[in-house]
Inverse folding.
């Protein structure tokens, strides 16, 4: 079971509200810090997610926890008719919407306020669902996965990109040092949010990665779940089909 890690230790608010507040706080710096702290590798990982979708040729794609819309924008490579991104953070969505407007993509990509644990779309409405660095933040993982399963058409793919923990020497040691010392320090400096980049390694630590996450997906009803570890296990991609 997912241990509940929350961003603001002294707050009694729900995890969901705290997560939304945290992403609202860091929204303006999110894209910069993402690319800076990952040294640009996050872009390669997003490309990998989209390349795995190619064979399905999805026409309608749901990007859950879309944030500032980077994965939704990468999904344009698949030439779909429509990409919908949903997120609980208004601040993140605002940055994403501005980006999409600037690129003139509003007719294909639409970003909406929406909660993965109570998705506003009917059953069987999407050809594919994707989520990058989102599932770890869900308040109720099973509820979120079940809702995603519900809105997908039968046989459709669901791809999750999420941080995982490298297990081998010396990457494990270097990664642990970077993730628990350098990243929170730099993140705090730029984002001005004291907790966000401490919550990041803590939430990764508490997340049921690898086989445990594969089991969570199967429990929800997904089949043919495959795990693909990236960059020495720093991140993982899970491909499942409804
Ligand atoms: C680390 S960001 C990832 C954003 C984007 N997918 C990316 O790859 O850059 C995590 C996002 O998950 C969103 N989120 C967390 N819980 C959510 C939920 N229950 N429903 C929808 N979005 C959620 C947060 O608001 C935040 O924007």
């Amino acid at each position: 079971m997912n241990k509940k890690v929350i961003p603001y230790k002294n707050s009694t608010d729900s995890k969901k509200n705290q997560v939304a507040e945290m992403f609202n706080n860091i929204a303006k710096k999110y894209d910069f810090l993402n690319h800076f702290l990952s040294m640009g590798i996050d872009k390669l990982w997003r490309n990998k997610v989209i390349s795995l979708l190619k064979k399905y040729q999805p026409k309608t794609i749901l990007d859950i926890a879309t944030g500032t819309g980077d994965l939704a924008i990468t999904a344009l490579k698949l030439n779909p008719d429509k990409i919908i991104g949903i997120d609980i953070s208004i601040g993140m969505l605002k940055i994403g919407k501005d980006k999409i407007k600037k690129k003139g993509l509003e007719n294909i990509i639409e970003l909406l306020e929406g909660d993965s644990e109570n998705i506003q779309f009917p059953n069987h409405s999407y050809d594919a669902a994707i989520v990058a660095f989102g599932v770890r933040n869900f308040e109720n993982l099973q509820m979120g996965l079940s809702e995603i399963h519900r809105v997908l058409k039968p046989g459709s793919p669901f791809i999750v990109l999420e941080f995982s923990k490298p297990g081998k020497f010396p990457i494990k040691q270097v990664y642990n040092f970077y993730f628990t010392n350098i990243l929170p320090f730099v993140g705090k400096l730029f984002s001005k949010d004291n907790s966000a980049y401490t919550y990041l390694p803590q939430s990764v630590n508490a997340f049921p990665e690898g086989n445990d996450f594969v089991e969570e997906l199967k429990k929800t009803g997904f089949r043919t779940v495959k795990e693909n570890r990236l960059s020495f296990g720093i991140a993982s991609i899970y491909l499942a089909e409804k």
